[in-house]
Each structure stands twice: as C-alpha cells, then as structure tokens.
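Pipeline run #58 for the internal structure catalog. This entry was flagged by the ingest filter as a single-chain record with no existing model, so it goes straight to prediction. Upstream metadata was stripped on purpose; only the residue string is passed forward. Reviewer on rotation: M.T. Logging verbosity set to normal.
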Amino acid sequence: MANLSLIVGLGNPGREYAQTRHNAGFWFVERLAERYGINLKTDPKFNGMSGRGNIEGQDVRLLLPTTFMNLSGKSVVPFAKFYNIAPERMLIAHDELDMNPGVIRLKTGGGHGGHNGLRDIVPHTGPNFHRLRIGIGHPGAKDQVSGHVLGKAPSKEQDLMDDAIHHALAQIKLLVNGDIQPAMNQINAYKP
C-alpha cells in the first residue's frame, strides 16, 4: 500500500472546544506533532493549521481544519488537491459515537456513518481514505448527541480515550509506511 502523506485530525476550533469529545481527532494529531517536533502553524489559505515533518522516515503533512466540524471539507479537500495527495494516502482521525471510550479502530473506506466532518469530505474525495475512529461513547438518545459530543468527558473516560490514542500512536511507523493491514491488526486488537 501507499505510504501516508497526510494525517488530518477533525475537531472544532477555539479554546472552548479543545477538551470536548468532538475534538478527539485533534488530540491524536496534536500528540503526533508534539512527538515528532512538527510545528502546526495557521494556514489561512486552507482554513487550517498545518505542519510538515519527518515521521519515521516519511515526509508527512499534518492538518487540523479551523472550520467548524461540519465544514471540514473546506479545509481538507483544497489542501489534498493543492498537494496532490490521493485519498489512499490520507488518514483522517475522528471521534466515533458508536464506540465506547477506550475503543479505537482503523478502517479504510466506507461512508460517513453520520459523522458531520466526514459527511463534508467524502463527496469531494471519495471514500477511499483511511480513518482512525476514536470511541467517545453514545449518550443513549439521539436528542442528547449534540450536548455529548460538545461536552467534556469525565476524567475516567478521558483516560480511556488518551490510552487508546497512545496505543494508536505506537503504531505510527506501520501507518506512515503504508503497512495498513498490520497497523489495523494492532490497533483494532486494542482492549482498554
């Protein structure tokens, strides 16, 4: 498989959203940037914060859209087009309602699954990018979803999510080198 050229974290911009569950994708990319010394700078041309660096021998770009979640495509799509990055060379990290905190899954392709960030990206890129799905749990009722994703997790749940993200970061060499199946085996086998 092709090595990764772009890793995107989905979330909402602004300090008031930084610790909310919807920003789980941001957390993954921010920790990755920190680990590899990649400076994320405001990139108004692409409505995001981006950086570029060497991750385990690969030249990789990182992107955090600074649009709101449901407008993520306004950042991701022009960025990928400008740098000529095919969907197969993209990993998008995002929160996942249908998985409990502490559960993390790597998947390639598929629909948007009701995720508003993906809903704004898939029609423009096609579905063939990789997704790192970070479980945040479901509140149990549809009318509570908005408050749940925009709320801060209790510390026990936050610890579970942080540990899952840490586990995924440990597989980054496989990911960036395009060894997606072995990375999937490792990430998807994780038990909190």
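catalog note: Residues 4 and 89 are 4 Å apart (CA to CA).
catalog note: The two ends are 29 Å apart (CA to CA).
status: ready for reviewer M.T.
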